[in-house]
Amino acid sequence: MGFSEKSADFVESRRSPKSYGDIFFHWLTVFLLVFFAVVMVTPFIWLLSSSLKTQINIFQYPPQLIPDPFVPENYVYALTYKPFGIYFRNTVLVAGLNVVAVVFTSSFCAYGFARMRFPGRDFWFGIVMATLFLPYAVLLVPSFIVFSRLGWVDTFLPLVVPPFFGGGAFNIFLMRQFFRTIPEEIADAARIDGCSEFGVYWRVMLPLSKPALITIGIFTFLFAWNDLIGPITYLRSPDNFTIAVGLASFRSQTDISWDLQLAASTAVTLPVIVLFFFAQRYFIQGVVMTGLKG
Amino acid sequence: MSLATEPKAAEQGFWLIRQYNRLTLRQRRTLMGYVFIAPFILGFLFWWLGPAAVAGYLTFHKWNFLAAPKFVGMAHFSKMVGDPILAQSLKVTIVFSAISVPLSLVFAFFLANLINAKFRFIAVFRTIYFLPSIVPAVANAILWAWLFNTEFGLINFVIRFFGGPKIGWLQDPSWVMLAFVILTVWGVGGSMIIFLAGLQGIPQIFYEAAEIDGAGRWQRLLYVTLPMMSPIIFFNLVIGFINSFQVFVSALLITNGGPQRATLFLVLHIWRTAFSSQKMGYASVLSWLLFLILMVLSFIVFRYIGSRVYYENPDD
Questions:
Q1: In this prediction, does ipTM exceed 0.90?
Q2: CA distance A256 to B146
Q3: Distance separating alpha carbons of residues A226 and A246, to the nearest angstrom
Q4: How far is it, in rounded angstroms, from Cα A98 to Cα A57?
Q5: Helix B154-161 and helix A20-51, axial crossing angle in degrees, nearest 10
Q6: Chain B contacts of A144, Cβ < 8 Å?
Q7: Residue B113: its chain A contacts at CB < 8 A?
Q8: Angle at CA of residue A130, ends A129 and A134, nearest 5°
Q9: Is B17 helix (H, G, I), strand (E, B) or coil?
Q10: Residues of A numbered 256-285 whose beta carbons fall under 8 angstroms of chain B's beta carbons: which are they?
Q11: Are A260 and A77 spatial neighbours (Cβ–Cβ below 8 Å)?
């Protein structure tokens, strides 16, 4: 499934002749679709429009829809007011390591859960599922205590090391579901040709799982890009901030005006939306895979 | 595991490999299985069980990071019972959960039905409806803080345009909860897509059969769509509940817990207890409390709602 258009022009076109009820229902659907589309899109337009206004124009009632004058310089001010270059580098580093960790270790564990038979497997998979339903927030304080004992506070380690241990229950679950759709015969053929179990995982399963791996890679990247609670808890010195922490620090400083906050927010949102348009298929697949097999 | 490589390896005389060769096929398989899931097991021990144990130890101690933890026995628990701030944050979290979860669920289901229609350009609508859910949390918080701005926010502008009053969305404790519900409902795109995929998975024959039996739109929704969708509705419900107990970024950045602690969500309260007040012991107690609440809630949800879910193919 994707956002593909279906060829039929009208709702229930197969039914003819149309009753008045059908016609009414058709136009009601059109009306609601457009109405909610406007509701959904307006905040984005408002964000974009406000981010391009002068400080004076932003505090105007009634508000202007199209900024006059047009101030794209807001973006330059906002992104240089704080060292967003450094934040960007940090975020890419953290997110990149997370992606590598999750793609490899979650698929590795998932292979064990999906394709190996051994006593205790189902018990451990039960634990995977249990941690799936326990949010990160529960562990926030306990893990902080552990990481502070390890001397990892104000480093990237608390953010990048744990993903290397299985890459999160959610991703293990997702990869396991995907592996189970790959016919065992392919793996058997490789085994007959002398492939070890690691070989089957590495040379057979991983190449066949590219769509699933890209999906979890994208979601991991997005999570790291968006995450605030982890970085704000562990990162102390501004040189270590990620984009999310940097942007959040705009809020706590009262001298930063709305136009700059909104310009910075737009700038942070834009890459995500661009990524979405390029990788729409994987986004949808990821969301759907998580939902339907649950 | 290939048998062919083993004699060679044994010749090299590595003790471990000799031991490995002595294992039966079954034992080898078990060993390999554990090798594969080892990262998860280690991670579970290091980053779940370990921290949970430390937090368990700290529930009986007072610790501010600087001095050594001091044993206080059950003091944290008795403090917890009479803590008005904790009671407030529990109330906020539960009220928010009770309002936003069903509302988001219904709205996501409704939108999914809308975008399941067959129209030209329906793909554009699907994209538009989904986009809000991918806005980064921090940017989202700033955006909504601005939308809800009392004097210059767009929402008050629209309300006043239609002759309504100026609402202090983020200043008035009785309105702020609604503001949080609205911004949550705006971002239901994820569950909407899950619903959409579910709707598209319902075989058309069921609808045709219902139609032949004279079922109208409403009856088809009630007797075909809803039962067929019940596993997905249940899934979205569980995820929604868990997420509703984790509100942090918007509470921190939009209102910082205010006004008058009306948005002091539990996670924000725990976070502040730990990192602003440096009360690690008490914060550990609260973390355990959050854990227990979620366990009890999950149990209730699975026991009383999960048992009503209809599975077409129970083996899937």
A1: no
A2: 13
A3: 11
A4: 42
A5: 130
A6: 274-275
A7: none
A8: 115
A9: helix
A10: 258, 261-262, 264-266, 268-269, 272-273, 276, 280, 283-284
A11: yes
Of B120, B129, B238, the CB nearest to A36: B129
State whether A262 and B142 contact (CB < 8 Å): yes
What is the C-alpha to C-alpha distance for residues A179 and A165, in angstroms, rounded to an integer?
19
Comparing A70 with A227, the larger pLDDT belongs to A227
Q: What was the pLDDT predicted at B71? A: 84
Per-residue model confidence as pLDDT tens digits over B190-206: 889 889 988 988 888 99
Beta-strand pair B61-62/B70-71 = antiparallel
- The 3-state DSSP class for residue A128 equals helix
Question: Which residue range is the domain that position A223 belongs to?
Answer: 82-252
3-class secondary-structure state, position B71:
strand
Residue found under tokens 């569950």: B191
Chain B, 84 to 113: residues with Cβ < 8 Å from chain A are: 111
This prediction's pTM: 0.86
User: What is the structure's pLDDT at A9?
Assistant: 43
What structural domains does chain B harbor? Answer: 6-58 (no CATH), 78-308 (1.10.3720.10)
CATH of the domain at A186: 1.10.3720.10
Average pLDDT, chain B: 86
In whole angstroms, give the CA distance from residue B138 to residue A228.
Answer: 7
A225: in domain: yes
Residue listed under structure tokens 């529930």? B59
Residues 23-82 on B with a CB inside 8 Å of A are 29-30, 32-37, 39-44, 46-48, 50-52, 54-55, 58, 65
Flag whether A12 is in a domain.
Answer: no
The amino acid sitting at B129 is Y
On whether residue A236 sits in a domain, the answer given is yes
DSSP state of A102: I
Alpha-carbon gap, residue A36 to B126, rounded angstroms: 11
Residue with tokens 């307006």: A42
Q: Give the range among B157-166, B256-265, B307-316 with minimum mean pLDDT.
A: B307-316
Residue A245: CA atoms inside 13 Å, Cβ hemisphere, count?
Answer: 23
pLDDT range class, residue B5, cuts 50, 70, 90: low
Instruction: Produce one character per residue of B41-71: b if its CB has 16 or more CB atoms within 10 Å, e if not.
Output: bebbeebbeebbebbebbbbbbbeeeeebee
- What's the number of domains chain A is made of? 2
Tokens of A164: 């290397």
Q: Percent helix, strand and coil across chain A, each rounded to 5?
A: 70, 0, 30
Specify whether A64 is located in the same domain as A157.
no
Taking a C-beta distance cutoff of 8 angstroms, is the pair B136, A95 a contact? no
Question: Which pLDDT value is given to residue B11?
Answer: 57
